[in-house]
Amino acid sequence: MRHSAVFGAVIEEALANGTVVRFRAEGNSMYPTIRDGEPITVAAVPAEQVVRGDVLLCRHGHRLLAHRVVGVTTHGTERFFELRGDAKVSCDSPVAAGAVVGRVVGVRRNGRVIPLSGCGARLRHKARAAASGAKAFVRRAFAGDDLRVSSRPSS
Length: 155
Description:
- This protein has helices spanning 5-16, 119-145, and strands at residues 21-24, 39-43, 55-60, 63-75, 78-84, 95-96, 100-109, 112-115.
- It has a single domain (5-117), classed as Umud Fragment, subunit A (Ribbon), CATH 2.10.109.
- It is built from 2 helices and 8 strands; from the N terminus they run αββββββββα.
- By secondary structure, it is α+β, with helices and mostly antiparallel strands.
- β4 (63-75) and β5 form a beta hairpin.
- The protein is 25% helix and 33% strand.
């Protein structure tokens, strides 16, 4: 998302002090949930409150990355999150709770804020994912019809 160490430090400091931050997202890994250039709003979140379906802002090396939680595991007393961009096929490497900077709570699109946290946001994401899967299934099914050859014996 952002490559500047200074940017990351400012965001982390603001969130640690209880400030909600807003900045423009970069990239397409969360499309269509978050589009390149859209303003996103991030709030601090305790690791124990993170649930599957949340979109987290995390440290990945020297950059910040916002991806969706697709799995939560615990090793000993530490929680780890499996993250994946909505437009990605594979997951990122697991992220420890200490790398979580905040939770993306909304995206501003066409003059309104679309909530990205909470039960309603998770239901919208699941519905969109199911519709996308059904569309891909139908597309593959109809594409296969064009390739069928009749195997009836000739008379």
